[in-house]
Structures are given as C-alpha cells and as structure tokens.
Design brief:
Helices cover 41% and strands 14% of the residues. It starts with a helix and ends in a 5-residue tail after the last strand. The N terminus is likely disordered. It has a 7-stranded mixed sheet with strand order 3-2-1-4-5-7-6, with helices on both faces. It has a single domain, classed as Vaccinia Virus protein VP39 (Rossmann fold, 3-Layer(aba) Sandwich), CATH 3.40.50. The radius of gyration is 26 Å and the shape is globular. It is an alpha/beta fold. The protein has 11 helices and 7 strands. The structure holds S-adenosylmethionine. The site of S-adenosylmethionine (SAM) has 22 residues, from helix 5 and strand 2. Keywords: Methyltransferase, rRNA processing, S-adenosyl-L-methionine, Transferase. This is rRNA methyltransferase 2, mitochondrial. One of its GO terms (cellular component) is mitochondrion. Pfam families: FtsJ. InterPro entries: RNA_methyltr_RlmE, RNA_MeTrfase_FtsJ_dom, rRNA-MeTfrase_E, SAM-dependent_MTases_sf.
Amino acid sequence: MSFRATLPSLSHKLPPSSRAWLSRQFRDPYVRARLSYPANYRSRSAFKLIELDQRFKFLQHDDVKTVVDLGAAPGGWSQVVAGKMGWTEQSVAGLAEVMHARAKKKQVEGQARGSFGLKGPEKEPDTGSWSPDVQIDEVDPLRELGLDQDITPPPVGRGTIVAVDLLRIEPIAGVKTLQMDFLSPEADAYINALLPSEPGTEGKADVILSDMAGNFSGNKTADIESSIDICSAVFEFAQRHLRTSKSIGRRQGGVLVLKHFAHPRSVEFRAEKLTPNFGMVHYVKPPASRAGSGEGYWVCTGWKPVTT
Ligand SMILES: C[S@@+](CC[C@H](N)C(=O)[O-])C[C@H]1O[C@@H](n2cnc3c(N)ncnc32)[C@H](O)[C@@H]1O
C-alpha cells in the first residue's frame, strides 16, 4: 500500500495536529524527493546542504579532503558529502547499476541457454535434430552486451568524513561515525583522533558543518541560549580544527556552515565571532528550509582567524 493511499484511511483516527503534519508531509516535494530513487537521502535536511553547496560550492573542490559533520543523524548531510567526495552517491548509484547489470546478466544467460536449446545445465540438447554439417555461430550474447566482464565494485572516494551525533548513525561508506555529545569535554579529543594527519593538512578539516539543534523546550529564552551555546562550541571547535584559507591556498577555503535561529543574540554572535574571522559570512535560508521555522544557516568562507 502506498504512503499516499494510507492517508485517507488513517486520517479520521488521528488528532488534527497529526493530520496537519501528515498532510504537509504528503504535499512536501522534498519529502517525496528524499524517498525517491536513486538519492534515497535519509533526511529532508539533505536538500538544504545540496542547495547551500549549489550556491557556495564549498564541497566541489578536489582539495576538500576532510569534512566534519556535527549533529549528523540520521545522516542526510553525510550522505551528500560522501557523494561529493566520490563515496556514496556513486556507491548508491553504482550499487543500483550492479544490481541492474546482474539481473540483466541472469536474464541474458537464461535467454542464451534457451537459444541453444537448453532449459538448464542438466538437460541434454536434442541430438536428433543435429547434423554434423551445420555450422553454429559461436555468438556470446553476454560479450555482445558488454556483460561478460566482472562487474567492477563501487569506487572508493577521497578523504575522510567524520559524523557526530547523540544518536546512532547507520553506516555510510566513507563516513566515520561517533555517537556522543558534542558538548561533552571529551568530544574534541575523540573527533581529533579521527582526523587524518596528512602532510600539509595539519590534521585539520577543510569544511566543518553543523546542523545541530537541541531539543526545543518551548521556553524561547532557554532555547535561544541553547542554540547560541551550540554555535559557540562549534566556533571554538573550528578555532582548533579548521584549516585556514592560507593553508589550503584558496581565498574561500576553510569553510564553516552553522545552523542557528533568528534572534538578536545570534546577530551579536555573528558580528563578534564570525565576521572578524572569515573572509565572507553569508546568511542563507535555503529553499528546503521550511518558511515557518526560525532556522537559518551561516555559510562562512575563508577562515583567517584573528581571535584565539
Ligand atoms: C536537524 S538534525 C540533523 C539532521 C542531519 N543534518 C541530516 O541531514 O540527517 C539535528 C541533530 O543534532 C543532534 N544534536 C543536538 N545536540 C547535539 C549534541 N550536543 N551533540 C551531538 N549531536 C547533537 C540531534 O541529535 C539531531 O540528530
């Protein structure tokens, strides 16, 4: 039974708020796209990162080797990053192609056996109809279709992605996951241990993403405090672990993407912490972000720290 088909049959049993939520889900093009083949993203949020990257292109450089994704569960953003770095998007598509090719190969093998008068390996050909003078063309239908070679496995991507969340993240190719509280004192050391120390990278990240949001209590002051605390902790993490634009050798290199909520305190935070330390700070409300939500993203490029 399809998702859509269950709505009318269930709706009369649900409270109005749940009906409204369901109805919004059914109408939401991003929810439908998320579920569609082949992307199959785990979260609707994945499209926010896709839209941010389409605009600012921070994941589209080959020199982007290390990305940290904070507040990553269920893993939509990590899937997008892994795809950009040659891991999952190609792996998912690659896997689909492998499955398709395998099915086709089986089908062709079946037809091949059929065309030579065999239903299966155990059945002998009908020798009564054979004549020694008849020349049989040895056409290999698998070779004709280019399916005689071993199917190559999905490609291996470049670099490292570290994904952190309080919640478990199901495995994603190319992504190292950590289930822990990013705000805990030991988080920094755990994440640092997963950052590769390749020559020239100083063991730092090229891009740090944070889609973290605490649980809303309903108390506006407490909620904005919690959001600012998260932004401050991410900024301090960036101070220790983000590669500078100079080290990367690109003016826009060293990127921090930071979710926050609209509030005068957020504006202060941006002016005090972000603006002086990055070449550019853009406020973005990506189209995939629901109009009614107060969330927005700062896309900060060109890390050139002046405060320590
Ligand atoms: C909006 S969701 C992230 C969705 C994710 N970007 C995706 O595409 O799948 C926010 C996440 O932040 C996580 N989070 C909130 N506070 C956290 C903390 N202190 N440490 C780690 N994760 C946290 C939540 O558990 C939640 O999974």
